[in-house]
């Protein structure tokens, strides 16, 4: 009798559903997965080591490039760590802006997660719908920081600058005539806050649209219900966080459990799943987007009423205004020192974690009192999730592996760092 | 017409029937190929609009030359034959895929009498020929000697065979009430009946009395042509492109052409078998090819619409749908129709 062997295939790194550079070595028996072995490291850029050779502020843009679909949240954890080490206070307006952009980022991330999850499962229209909304939020990023992705907007001590009073406008071109441009610019006439308010009013309708496409769709349910089930115990044991944990019914959210910035003053709910399958995690993400939308609304209302500084006035941490720098010797010295030597962070170590869209994103920083971190350790949520790949995929079909990758919301910048 | 062709016919002498048939074949295949090319364009445009984007709009006015550009690109690309393949079969695969999808058009009637081969067993011919298509896929996947194509092939073999059964039973219902296997005859039968006499021809077509079969046929048609949401054979996000992974240039293009030619074929058959072919929906408008074209296009549009809307089925769910839902439903309906025909309530006398 011939020897029966399992069929081993290389799923990625060049694969449409590999979410970047996931290399998954699958052992198949027919189409049933016997073993799923994720190989990582293809996007490793040594961020932690690089940070040791840069001043504290210079590493902020590296944080953008970790999980490159939730840029500002990464920055947030890093800035929080530095602030805790120095003991600097962020002005309230700065905190509200941070929270608002954290939630914008959460929507950005979840839109991509749900869009690509649906695309992996074959509903390709979803991804284009979600990208339509991402476009608006990217514009908000652009308006506030000048960059659509790698914003580098959060700084130790606050945010780089206040919200702009006007939105960038589209201009007529060969492909866009005056009428199209007028329509595109219609909701961009006011300030960034006006633009975002308009978005928050439209967004629930968009969520309903997505839900009509997916939530009650029989095929979607067949593909997600009961797939990749994680019990609450398993989820905790594997170190799951974020939607992956809440999908299993554990109501753990750092925004509620260890409130940072102004989250304790805002009204929002934590959605949890029941079964811990892909479908529940999809529903959790859907509801989180609605909740984020609600938080953004509250932030907009507060920010409209309360002008003020957005970054700390401590010029050992944050640069002085350009005007002051030009007219005042002391400010000039601060400016020069900050942009050449950088700030010195007191000796000590700190762990700062935030509720990143994907889960708990933590920064563990050790300072020896120099202008550079002595050691920086990043705790990325995706890494823990991906580690459960084998356990989640075992016994499922090849097509379910794709659904599981989608539901994990893997981004390789985040996993490999 | 005959008189007009007389001098040319005498020029060819005994070879004339062959020449004339060849000319007719070209007259069918050439427009078909154009239709296939532009189906890719319309698919991209229509799905584009469904997905809030524009679709191709750079090559030529409104992007109308896009299919030509695609065709030229594929023609000029090198046909790579990986060294581990079985060379002969590797080339034979795509040929076997496209040949049946073109051959089936021989018996398709475009208008009353407008058919290349008006054979009595037309429906049987279609079933036989389209069954061969799966060999192209199987041979391609096997000859590629590669893992993803092999998975695609296994899926194709199971899926196409399963849905052929459901499709076959749906067609049995049609031929029972038409009492003919001749496609032209099937259309003519649909032009008779109580509603047709009242001038409401579209209510006399087979889709109404055979509605469940119509739905089954339509869905099986999508499954037969491996279109979304049944596109597990090439399942982009799962097995990349299934049996087409190792193919490039024209060999790949042949699979592609076959898929789109099959879409047209399944659509035109739906129009002929269930939607009255070239018959006009209402009494006061003349019959003609344009009706068939409109109906076929509507069915093709359904294909595209489904693709833009639904997630992909999982392979085992497709099997379940085929064997546990469609097969019993069609078997049962065959029985219902049989009893209906023999009963005094029959509307087909």
CATH architecture of chain A: Orthogonal Bundle
Average the pLDDT over all residues of chain A and give the rounded result.
88
Overall mean pLDDT score of chain B? 84
Total beta-strand segments of chain A: 8
Structural class of chain B: mainly alpha
The greatest inter-chain interface is formed by: A-B, 30 and 29 residues
CATH topology of chain A: Cytochrome-c3 Hydrogenase, chain B
Largest sheet of chain B: none
Structural class of chain A: mainly alpha
What order do the helices and strands of chain B follow? HHHHHHHHHHHHH
Helical coverage of chain A, percent range: 40-55%
The coarse silhouette of chain A is globular
Shape of chain B: globular
* Beta fraction of chain A: 5-15%
Report strand % of chain B. Answer: under 5%
Computed over alpha carbons, the radius of gyration of chain B is 21 Å
Oligomer: heterodimer
Biggest β-sheet: strands ordered side by side in the sheet of chain A: 1-2-3
Order of helices and strands of chain A: EEEHHHHHEEHHHHHHHHHEEEHHHH
**Number of discrete helical segments of chain B:** 13
């Amino acid at each position: 009798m011939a020897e029966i062997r399992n069929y081993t295939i290389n799923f990625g790194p060049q694969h449409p559903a590999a979410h970047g550079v996931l290399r998954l070595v699958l052992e198949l028996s027919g189409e049933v997965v016997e073993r799923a072995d994720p190989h990582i490291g293809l996007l490793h850029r040594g961020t932690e080591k690089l940070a040791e050779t840069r001043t504290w502020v210079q590493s902020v843009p590296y944080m953008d490039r970790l999980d490159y679909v939730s840029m500002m949240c990464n920055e947030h954890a890093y800035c929080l760590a530095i602030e805790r080490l120095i003991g600097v206070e962020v002005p309230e307006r700065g905190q509200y802006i941070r929270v608002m952009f954290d939630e914008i980022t959460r929507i950005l991330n979840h839109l991509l997660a749900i869009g690509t999850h649906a695309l992996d499962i074959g509903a390709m229209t979803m991804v284009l719908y979600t990208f339509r909304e991402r476009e608006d939020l990217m514009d908000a990023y652009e308006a506030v920081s000048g960059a659509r992705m790698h914003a580098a907007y959060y700084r130790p001590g606050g945010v780089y600058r206040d919200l702009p009073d006007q939105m960038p406008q589209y201009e007529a071109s060969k492909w866009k005539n005056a009428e199209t441009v007028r329509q595109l610019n219609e909701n961009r006439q006011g300030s960034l806050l006006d633009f975002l308010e308009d978005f928050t009013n439209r967004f629930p309708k968009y969520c309903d649209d997505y839900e009509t496409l997916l939530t009650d769709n029989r095929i979607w349910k067949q593909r997600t219900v009961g797939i990749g089930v994680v019990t609450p115990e398993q989820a905790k044991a594997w170190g799951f966080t974020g939607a992956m944990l809440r999908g299993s019914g554990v109501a753990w959210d750092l925004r509620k459990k260890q409130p940072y910035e102004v989250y304790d003053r805002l009204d929002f709910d934590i959605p949890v799943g029941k079964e811990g399958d892909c479908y529940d995690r999809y529903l959790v993400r859907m509801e989180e987007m609605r909740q984020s939308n609600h938080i953004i609304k509250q932030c907009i209302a507060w920010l409209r009423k309360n002008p003020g500084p957005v970054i700390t006035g401590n010029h050992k941490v944050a640069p002085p205004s350009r005007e002051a720098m030009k007219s005042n010797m002391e400010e000039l010295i601060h400016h020069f020192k900050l942009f050449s030597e950088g700030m010195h962070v007191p000796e000590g170590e700190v762990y700062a974690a935030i509720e990143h869209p994907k889960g708990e994103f933590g920064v563990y920083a050790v300072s020896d009192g120099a202008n550079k971190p002595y050691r920086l350790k990043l705790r990325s949520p995706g890494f823990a999730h991906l580690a459960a790949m084998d356990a989640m995929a075992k016994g499922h079909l090849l097509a379910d592996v794709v659904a599981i990758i989608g539901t994990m919301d893997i981004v390789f910048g985040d996993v490999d760092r | 017409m005959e008189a007009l062709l007389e001098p040319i016919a005498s020029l060819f002498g005994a070879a004339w029937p062959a020449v004339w048939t060849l000319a007719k074949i070209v007259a069918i295949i050439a427009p078909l190929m154009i239709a296939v090319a532009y189906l890719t364009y319309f698919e991209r445009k229509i799905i584009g609009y469904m997905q809030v984007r524009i679709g191709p709009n750079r090559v030529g006015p409104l992007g109308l030359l896009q299919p030509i550009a695609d065709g030229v690109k594929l023609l000029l690309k090198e046909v790579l034959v990986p060294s581990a393949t079985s060379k002969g079969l590797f080339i034979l695969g795509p040929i076997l895929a496209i040949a049946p999808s073109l051959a089936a058009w021989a018996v398709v009637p475009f208008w009353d009498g407008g058919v290349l081969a008006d054979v009595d067993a037309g429906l049987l011919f279609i079933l036989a020929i389209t069954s061969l298509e799966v060999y192209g896929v199987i041979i391609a996947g096997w000859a590629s000697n590669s893992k993803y194509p092999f998975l695609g092939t296994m899926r194709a073999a199971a899926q196409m065979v399963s849905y052929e059964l459901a499709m076959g039973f749906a067609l049995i219902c049609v031929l029972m009430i038409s009492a003919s296997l001749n496609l032209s005859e099937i259309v003519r039968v649909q032009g008779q009946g109580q509603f047709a006499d009242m001038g409401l021809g579209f209510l006399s077509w087979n889709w109404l009395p055979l509605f469940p079969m119509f739905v089954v046929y339509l869905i099986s048609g999508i499954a037969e042509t491996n279109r979304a949401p049944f596109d597990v054979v090439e399942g982009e996000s799962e097995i990349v492109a299934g049996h087409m992974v190792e193919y490039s240039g024209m060999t790949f293009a042949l699979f592609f052409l076959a898929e789109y030619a099959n879409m047209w074929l399944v659509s035109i058959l739906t129009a002929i078998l269930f939607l009255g072919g070239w018959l006009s929906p209402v009494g006061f408008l003349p019959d003609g090819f344009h009706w068939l074209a409109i109906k076929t296009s509507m069915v093709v549009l359904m294909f595209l619409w489904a693709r833009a809307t639904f997630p992909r089925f999982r392979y085992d769910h497709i099997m379940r749908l085929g064997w546990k839902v469609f097969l019993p439903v069609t078997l049962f309906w065959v029985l219902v129709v049989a009893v209906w025909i023999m009963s005094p309530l029959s509307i087909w006398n």
